[in-house]
Amino acid sequence: MKVQLENITLAYGDAVAIKDLSVDIADGESLVLLGKSGCGKTSTMRCVAGLETPLSGRITIGDTVVFDSERRVDVPPNKRNVGMVFQSYAVWPHRTIFHNVAFSLRQQKLPKAEIRERVRDVLDLVGLTEFADRGASLLSGGQMQRVALARSLVMRPSVLLLDEPLSNLDARLRDRLRVELREIQQRLSLTCVYVTHDQSEALALADRIALMQNGRIVQIDRPEKIYDAPFSASIADFLGVSNIFPCTRVASRENLSVLGLTGHDVEVLSRSLPTGPEGAAEGSGAADPADPATPRVCIRPEDIRLLTEPLPEGGNNWLGKVEVVSFQGSYVRYRVGLKGGPELDALVPRHGSALLPVGTPVWATAEPTAVQVLPAEVPA
Ligand SMILES: Nc1ncnc2c1ncn2[C@@H]1O[C@H](COP(=O)(O)OP(=O)(O)OP(=O)(O)O)[C@@H](O)[C@H]1O
Prior knowledge:
single chain; CATH 2.40.50.100; 2 domains; 5-stranded antiparallel β-sheet; 22 strands; binds adenosine-5'-triphosphate; ATP-binding; ABC_transporter-like_CS; ABC-type transporter activity; ATP binding
């Protein structure tokens, strides 16, 4: 079912946690709320669940208005048909898996045969059929989280809310369950709101990502769109772009602009420069990293190529030396210290070649089209 949040403002005492937030979530869509700790993700989710009462705004699930500050509508959580899965499993350890999953259906006094069938179906969906009679205390963390998911799904919620459900699990299990969750969500065409501060989880699970800062959504789009075109350097940083430097404009020639970083010039397509007060202002002074008006040059690590044979100086060719080598299977991540300037991260496909040892002199190069110039933050 679709979910609509309109102009939601929520405060805890004097502290405003969500500011005039609006978002439409389509039927069957997986929306991930992504952002740093304290930006208001969980609070937003709890408003949908009915666990927090906003100061103002309206929330609609399907065609039912579940909250409206003006009309004083506030449907209690247990009447919203919303399922929730949290970081802690909240599974009863002394009960069987079957009992854990069947509990809410029994509360509703559904016929036994129907309960059995629904629990069986949902255990099958989360891959726990063979564990139905096992005590929950004997399960691994990943299996517990599947029980928690099954317990929500068995109620056939209109919307499933997930708050960092995988963060207690080890990295490998997290990766696997991430894919399973996405598969289940897509198979059931379930409307989901998923809260995380983990960018790779967000990219993998979302139909759309809503990036939150200070109680506001600052960018909302498909994962690949946000990754390719973040609105600000702080969003790029959050999505894992490690080459971000303050810059000033030094010169323009034809369709290229030359930007100055510490000790180096970078060429960028003039049309990709931001305009207005946040734009890369002409100037010869040093770029001030503390000044939010100073624009940032962003180059994704995968857009930097490393060569051991010399390149002509100038353009976007910078001489440096390998400082750190981190082998990542099919990729190698190099940290290159540029001569007299900043360090660059380069993510280089390995293609079976030998790794460059620490200390190797290299030329780092990037196409002007791969260089983004962004405001430090999305203007408030
Ligand atoms: N019960 C509460 N009482 C007072 N302040 C709260 C309460 N819950 C959250 N806050 C504050 O509201 C703001 C938003 O918190 P929220 O938990 O929604 O953020 P979050 O993005 O989900 O963070 P995290 O990833 O750490 O859970 C924070 O400043 C937080 O300190």
